[in-house]
Specification:
heterodimer, A: about 240 residues, mainly beta, Immunoglobulin-like, five-stranded antiparallel β-sheet, four-stranded mixed β-sheet, 2 helices, B: about 600 residues, mainly alpha, Serine Threonine Protein Phosphatase 5, Tetratricopeptide repeat, 2 domains, three-stranded mixed β-sheet, two-stranded antiparallel sheet, 23 helices, 13 strands, DUF3823 domain-containing protein (chain A), DUF3823_C (chain A)
């Protein structure tokens, strides 16, 4: 038995010492790519969690690379600090902005920065959130930088959450989704009354802090939404 | 020395340890065994098909509640949302190669098999090849059409076949099924296709192509694959496909009929899924315990209370039931109607509905579906107002188990609904279609159900025909055909028809048959129907002071959300295949 064990140990030692003569000498993913999605109408594009993405295709590695995506943050910035150094084709996608078709070729290295300028489908203007007792009244108007050819406007809705991270997929259903207003109209067919929206959200919980924004959803390929800025609301205790 | 000199005269002898084409294709038994492999791999979306994982042929693929009905609102349950939209990377070119071998080899063996046999078998092979390509086309749109047995030693450029256009793929399927119809015989063994199976599948496939051309041209995701015709069919091709679907469906007229052997309309509709002699069955898939292929439908669709060993997880929604119209559970003043007995609810409902879904108060194997969500000590006001209240301000009494009593009465039923686990209904209903009530409780176990899956039945062909007719503007024929189905179902015939009625009829007749998911996709309405969708259940309560039952329409108790991304109208070409064959690019839009 002892002999057997020592033979096994010997065999393992030989295997262990003879393996791994080739060292992986590729660089780790130490390059980064970051920047802003700038709205052509001023400021950053207001996005929700991952509602827009930057699509990357590393053409220096393969002629037919698998695409990877950097999701945008809530403030319209994006950053990926674990990329492989190389040449990439990059393009913002996911909406809600007029699609870009020309990809940009970028050499991504440590600290590479690039800002993209996009034209949003819809701008939400004059957004106010006024608390009256326990009822929160939201008012806003919609504007379109480019009206012709705009995808159908599906619906508009508030997003209410108890953290600053508020938007599609990050909201309290009972204060948000159930106050959705269906529109289903082309932009050209919308009257001024259609474009000016008032939503009442009753029974806000007293003594709580909420973060509120509104969105307008369009029937593009991604069914993406344009968002307003975020307003903080303190509901006074009874 | 003598032995050395005389040895090794013949080296060129056939190998004795592998089957050569002569052995397999030289006899009918050999061909049959080869066919069995091909049939086994067919993409039939049966009891065991898991839309997130693929086609299951193993002996313990028992989780039959993971069905596509559970993401489309026919049912709710095991999936958290649209967990099947991206597919599972179906890529059956190994199976297609087997069919191609069959088609290449059969004509060489006509002397042994007989020319007429070879022709019939070739027809069957064309049907099988079409079936595989149909499984591909409805997922990916255009795919490489490979009709030859590729030589593994050929140059890479020959092996990396280019994607064909979506239109070409559907046309290929249509042409293959025409060959199948022309070459096959009128009848075949049970479980194998005859010429009418080819026509039936053609009516289904061409209807898919027609609706994709028509509705996919209006609701689509832009991208390179669409621009180049790999995903999408020009709208002006729609009518051509509808005509083909209609003509193919007509071929079955007079050869198949709806099952109408039992004058009890409910039992008749139950029987049609269980009686092997049904004149409605065109193409079926069989299962057996002995061969280790049995499924678990009975054990995974009915609660443990009525089976020997089971786990259910998917339950029909009130939304599905309301395809038949609103249930009479509310009075005109909005208050819930009072029932002496749960079973009273079923009075006057359409027989087909009662045969599709088990209602509260129905019986199975001598036991009653005693669904009860809870007890109201007393109830006043309207149903709508009660349901709108926050849960903590409702006056009902709920319970986490069946052992808890309220004044000596069970609070929830043995069959649910409750939210403590997934294994009791969360909608107030259970599936009845395909359930074999004649099985004694002790035999209802996992991997013990043998009733065949009816993959193609005449009712679907009639629905295909009606839809194609309506799309072509032939409302008269559509109305006649739909009323045939409604008469058999025990429903009131229609006096007029429109496309919505036809689609609703399809939803009722083919519920739980794994068709609705594809219907939603090909009509290009999945992203509208499943837009943050939540579905409803029907909750039975006992009102204690009145000794009556009431039913409230409430959100189903999983409270799941369903969404459908537009890009899911086409599944992504599997990444591994893209890696092997760059000619499969461009991938479908937005992947």
């Amino acid at each position: 038995m002892k002999k057997l064990i020592s033979r096994i140990l010997l065999g393992t030692t030989i295997l262990a010492s003879s393996a791994c003569t080739k060292i992986d000498n590729y660089d780790g993913p130490n390059a980064s790519f970051e920047g802003n999605l700038i709205s052509s109408e001023g400021g950053n594009l207001l996005t929700s969690q991952g509602s827009s993405q930057i699509r990357l295709e590393q053409i220096s590695w393969s002629a037919t690379p698998s695409p990877q995506e950097i999701p945008s943050k809530f403030d319209g910035t994006f950053k990926d600090s674990k990329l492989f150094k190389g040449t990439y084709k990059v393009i913002p996608k996911g909406g809600a902005f007029w699609p870009l078709y020309d990809t940009l070729t970028v050499d991504i290295n440590k600290g590479t920065k690039h800002d993209f300028t996009v034209t949003p489908y819809i701008l939400i203007k004059n957004f106010t959130a006024v608390l009256n007792g326990k009822t929160l009244t939201l008012k806003y108007t919609m504007e379109a930088p480019i009206g012709a050819g705009l995808p159908t406007i599906i619906e508009t809705q508030p997003y209410v959450n108890n953290t600053k991270l508020v938007g599609a997929g990050a909201s309290i259903r009972d204060f948000s989704d159930i106050y959705k207003k269906a529109i289903n109209k082309e932009w050209a067919d919308m009257t001024d009354a259609d474009k000016s929206v008032t939503i009442d959200i009753p029974d806000m919980l007293p003594g709580r802090k909420f973060f509120v924004r509104v969105g307008v959803r369009l029937n593009d390929s991604f069914k993406s939404s344009n968002f307003s800025e975020i307003i903080e609301i303190d509901v006074p205790a009874n | 020395m003598g032995a050395l000199v005389t040895s090794c005269q013949k080296l060129d002898i056939p190998p004795t340890n592998i089957f050569t084409p002569d052995i397999i294709f030289g006899s009918e038994a050999g061909v049959k065994s080869f066919l069995a492999t091909i049939y086994r791999g067919l993409p039939i979306e049966d009891f065991k098909y898991r839309p997130d994982q693929g086609f299951k042929t193993g002996g313990n693929d028992w989780e039959n509640f993971f069905n596509s009905a559970s993401v489309t609102g026919e049912e709710v349950g095991p999936f958290g949302g649209m967990d099947i939209g991206g597919g599972f990377g179906y890529w059956p070119y190994g199976d297609i190669r087997n069919v191609n071998i069959l088609i290449e080899e059969l004509p060489k063996h006509a002397d042994k098999l007989g020319q007429s046999n070879v022709d019939a078998l070739l027809g069957e092979a064309h049907f099988l090849r079409a079936y595989y390509y149909f499984g591909l086309a409805k997922r990916y749109g255009g795919v490489p059409i490979v009709t030859t047995v590729q030589d593994p030693g050929a140059p890479l450029s020959e092996l990396q076949v280019h994607r064909d256009k979506e239109e070409a793929t559907w046309d290929f399927i249509g042409a293959e099924l025409d060959l199948g119809y022309q070459m096959m015989n009128e009848t075949n063994e049970l479980g194998r296709a005859n010429k009418y199976a080819a026509a039936a599948l053609k009516s289904r496939a061409m209807l898919y192509a027609g609706t994709i051309a028509k509705y996919g041209s209006a609701n689509f995701v832009d991208g390179q694959a669409r621009a180049e015709g790999f995903a999408g069919i020009p709208a002006d091709k729609a009518n051509g496909y509808f005509t083909k679907a209609y003509d193919a469906a007509k071929l079955l007229e007079g050869h198949y009929s709806l099952y109408e052997k039992n004058s009890d309309k409910v039992q008749n509709y139950v029987d049609l899924f269980l009686k092997s002699e049904s004149p409605e069955n065109i193409f079926v898939k069989q299962y057996s315990i002995i061969s280790g292929t049995a499924h678990s439908w009975d054990a995974t669709m009915s609660p443990r209370y009525m089976t020997a060993n089971a786990l259910t997880r998917s339950y029909p929604t009130l939304d599905l039931v309301q395809r038949w119209g609103n249930l009479p559970v509310t009075n005109s003043d909005g208050t819930p109607k009072r029932f002496n007995d749960r079973a009273e609810l079923m009075q006057g409902l359409e027989p087909r509905l009662l045969a599709t879904v088990y209602f509260p108060g129905a019986t199975l194997r001598g036991l009653t579906f005693d669904m009860q969500r809870g007890i109201y000590p007393s109830f006043s006001g309207t149903a709508a107002a009660e349901v709108a209240k926050p849960a903590n301000s409702r006056s009902y009494i709920l319970s986490g188990d069946t052992k808890t009593l309220y004044q000596g009465r069970m609070i929830i039923g043995f069959t649910g609904p409750w939210t403590g686990g997934d294994e009791l209904t969360r909608t107030g209903f259970y599936v009845r279609k395909y359930i074999d009530a004649a099985k004694p409780i002790s035999t209802v176990d996992l991997n013990r159900s043998e009733q065949p899956w009816i993959d193609l039945r005449y009712a679907e062909i009639l629905l295909n025909r009606a839809e194609a007719a309506m799309e072509l503007g032939n409302a008269g024929d559509a109305l006649t055909v739909i009323n045939m189905i409604r008469n058999r179902a025990g429903a009131t015939p229609y006096t007029s028809i429109d496309i919505d009625k036809i689609r609703n009829e399809r939803g009722m007749e083919l519920a739980f048959e794994n068709q609705y998911y594809w219907d939603l996709k090909r009509w290009r309405i999945a992203d509208v129907v499943l837009n943050n969708a939540r579905f409803k259940g029907l909750m039975p309560y006992y009102v204690f002071n009145e000794n009556k039952y009431i039913f409230l329409s409430e959100p189903e108790l999983f409270q799941r959300n369903y969404n459908f991304d537009k890009k899911f109208y086409y599944e992504p070409i599997p990444g591994g295949e893209l890696g092997k064959n760059p000619n499969l690019y461009p991938n479908n839009p937005n992947y």
